[in-house]
TrEMBL record:
This is ABC-2 family transporter protein. It comes from the Bacteria. The keyword Ubl conjugation does not apply. It comes from Clostridium gelidum. Keywords: Membrane, Transmembrane, Transmembrane helix. The chain crosses the membrane at residues 20-45, 51-73, 100-127, 139-161, 168-187, 220-242.
């Protein structure tokens, strides 16, 4: 399986899109921080501590962007390379898990690059009276703690790809799934308050908990564990379905 992983990483290392996407995300991170710092308008919108607390409210958007890792598996169906690999007597489990590991590697590399840019550029923002270096450390810790939740998003994407195989349809359905939280809120208010229980176990809700500067350690641990459960359970289910599929 190591060779499969190396081959896949080499393939993406030769694609300009990989570098362009990472560069655009890093530039976007820098520009947003510079805008908040008032580098363009001359007026700072937030103090550093306020900006750090608000940044996590946008993390559900990053969760939606997990669909960008869809092609790692979906293009194998489109190009017919899964069929060639299976014909080479390579087990389906090794094929699937090698792709999943590559997704994780790509996600970690891109996230690390963006985080480095963010931590450097956030120094442009003025500090308020309540700011301390511990806030930045806490932000970094919470970002790292959110990793299993983002991986849970990737596993949902993978399950949809294995079932549907069409990138465009997968992206639409995944986006709809990410909006279930809004739907459960409406149903809770209009029909039955027990619908709120569903919302408590959604990935977007776990991101909100991890990102809340007032959340306790047990709450963060619970959110991380839920993200891990999503990742492990959905990966196992997807691997089983993939192993039983006829690759055409």
């Amino acid at each position: 399986m190591t060779n499969l992983i190396k081959a896949e990483i080499y393939k993406y290392s030769k694609r300009p899109f990989t570098y362009i996407a990472t560069l655009l995300l890093c530039i976007g991170t820098f520009l947003v921080t510079a805008l908040v710092a008032g580098k363009f308008s001359g007026i700072a919108f937030y103090t550093r501590e306020k900006f750090l607390s608000l940044t996590f409210t946008y993390f559900p958007l990053i969760l939606i962007l997990m669909m960008v890792f869809c092609p790692v598996i979906s293009e194998e169906y489109k190009e017919g390379t899964f069929k060639n690999l299976c014909a080479s007597n390579i087990s389906k489990s090794k094929i699937f898990f090698s792709r999943f590991i590559v997704q994780i590697i790509l996600a970690v590399v891109i996230a690390t690059m963006c985080m480095i840019v963010f931590l450097l550029s956030v120094n442009m923002i003025i500090t308020g009276d309540s700011y301390s270096s511990e806030m930045l450390k806490g932000f970094t810790f919470r970002f790292i703690a959110s990793t299993p939740i983002f991986l849970g998003g990737i596993t949902i994407v993978n399950l949809l790809v294995i079932l549907i195989k069409k990138e465009a349809i997968v992206c639409v359905i995944y986006y709809i799934i990410m909006q279930i939280r809004i739907l459960t809120f409406i149903l809770e208010k209009l029909l039955w308050n027990k619908f709120g229980v569903i919302r408590e176990f959604l990935l977007s809700t776990q991101l909100e908990i991890v990102g809340d500067m007032n959340s306790t350690t047990p709450e963060i641990i619970k959110a991380v564990l839920i993200g891990l459960v999503y990742t492990v359970v959905l990966t196992i289910i997807t691997a089983i379905i993939f192993n039983k599929q006829d690759i055409k």
